Task: inverse folding
């Protein structure tokens, strides 16, 4: 039997070189920045605007639906592998009602342990070693890890900051934009998957109809599969519009669309997500998913089925509440001296710290709890090109209004 190895790869007493314990595909990742910064928030008693979870629960009727399911014995044992029929039907109805997308709940919908498992299962199912995945950078950190676990190669296409004004001397508008020429140039003969996220975390960008149309044309032209993360679909602001990529010509048959209850209904701990795609693609994703969790969140699946059937008034009220909180935090950050990229979607605000005389987001975020009693996330962790993300810092606004007001108050002295 081989000797126990160390993560450092140091030699054992016999003089032989030990193999590292951690699979080398994952060696670059380590502990997530979210764990580090959340622990720092607890240690310093700071307001945690780093990790993206609400500090209040979602609708009471949805919580009560979960309690009913528990009491009635629905989902307390293994639910069906693809998900309970009620939730699969609810997801199919939601896609049809919202976007005109028709999916068979029996063969074209798969329930997962949150969107994170859906991403992992999709990439593990669709990739083989050496396949390339073109992903929008900055990206949710699990994308890189899942591509690595599947043996694929990630090819980042960077969303770049832009500034514009309303007419002569008007208000400054900042946003991150996709360079479609750069996206096209990133596709090679080894590209297997486009991994698209809109509304986009962490930048808050919502891809426009024109941008999505160009992505669709590229995917069809090069015969690419597309995995699209749309978990913030109901969190779009102002005149932004969420348009599923699967609605474009030639895309339904090649697109794996990922959704989640956590962001829309503020029950992130329930971990209920889903995949919608043609039966062949769902079958492939399910083949990988069944060896990850097999099934999960039994009683919560019934509750989410009821949540998806809530009236439009719920979704609009939720959106308006988050938009007001976005404005509160964005304006407070601007007054504190940050350059603010007011998001068109999600519940995150990206800021540039250079107007504060800073340029290292990691150092800034690690010092911020002691300086101001607030925790944020350095965007550089979401980049392969770390220098491109170095001056950007992300704040979450999915918190109670009084919490955001206190955070803004604490941050004000940074400007002086």
Result:
């Amino acid at each position: 039997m081989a000797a126990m190895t160390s993560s450092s790869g140091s030699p054992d007493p016999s003089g032989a070189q030990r193999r590292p314990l951690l699979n080398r595909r994952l060696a670059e990742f380590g502990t997530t920045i979210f764990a580090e910064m959340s622990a720092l928030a607890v240690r310093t008693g700071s307001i945690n605007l780093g990790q993206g979870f609400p500090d209040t629960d979602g609708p009471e009727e949805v919580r009560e639906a979960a309690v009913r399911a528990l009491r009635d014995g629905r989902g307390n044992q293994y639910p069906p592998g693809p998900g309970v029929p009620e939730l699969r039907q609810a997801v199919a109805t939601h896609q049809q009602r919202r976007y005109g997308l028709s999916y068979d709940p029996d063969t074209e919908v798969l329930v997962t342990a949150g969107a994170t498992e859906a991403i992992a299962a999709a990439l593990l199912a669709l990739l083989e070693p050496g396949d390339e995945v073109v992903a929008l950078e900055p990206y949710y950190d699990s994308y890189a890890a899942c591509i690595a676990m599947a043996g694929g190669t990630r090819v980042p296409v960077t969303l770049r900051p832009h500034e514009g004004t309303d007419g002569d001397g008007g208000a400054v508008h900042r946003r991150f934009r996709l360079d479609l020429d750069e996206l096209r140039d990133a596709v090679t003969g080894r590209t297997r998957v486009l991994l698209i996220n809109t509304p986009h975390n962490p930048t808050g960008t919502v891809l426009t109809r024109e941008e999505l149309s160009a992505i669709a044309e590229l995917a069809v032209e090069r015969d690419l599969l597309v995995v699209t993360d749309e978990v913030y679909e109901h969190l779009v602001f102002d005149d932004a519009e969420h348009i599923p990529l699967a609605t474009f010509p030639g895309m339904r048959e090649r697109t794996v669309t990922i959704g989640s209850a956590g962001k829309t209904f503020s029950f992130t701990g329930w971990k209920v997500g889903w995949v919608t795609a043609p039966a062949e693609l769902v079958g492939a994703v399910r083949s990988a998913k069944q060896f990850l969790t097999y099934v999960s969140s039994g009683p919560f699946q019934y509750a989410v089925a009821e949540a998806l059937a809530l009236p439009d008034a719920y979704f609009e009220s939720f959106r308006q509440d988050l938009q007001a909180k976005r404005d509160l935090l964005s304006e407070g950050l601007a007054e504190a001296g940050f350059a603010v990229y007011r998001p068109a979607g999600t519940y995150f605000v990206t800021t540039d710290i250079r107007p504060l005389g800073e340029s290292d987001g990691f150092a800034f975020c690690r010092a911020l709890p002691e300086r101001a009693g607030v925790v944020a996330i350095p965007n550089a962790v979401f980049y392969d090109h770390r220098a491109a993300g170095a001056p950007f810092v992300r704040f979450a606004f999915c918190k109670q209004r009084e919490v955001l007001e206190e955070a803004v108050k604490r941050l004000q002295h940074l400007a002086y």
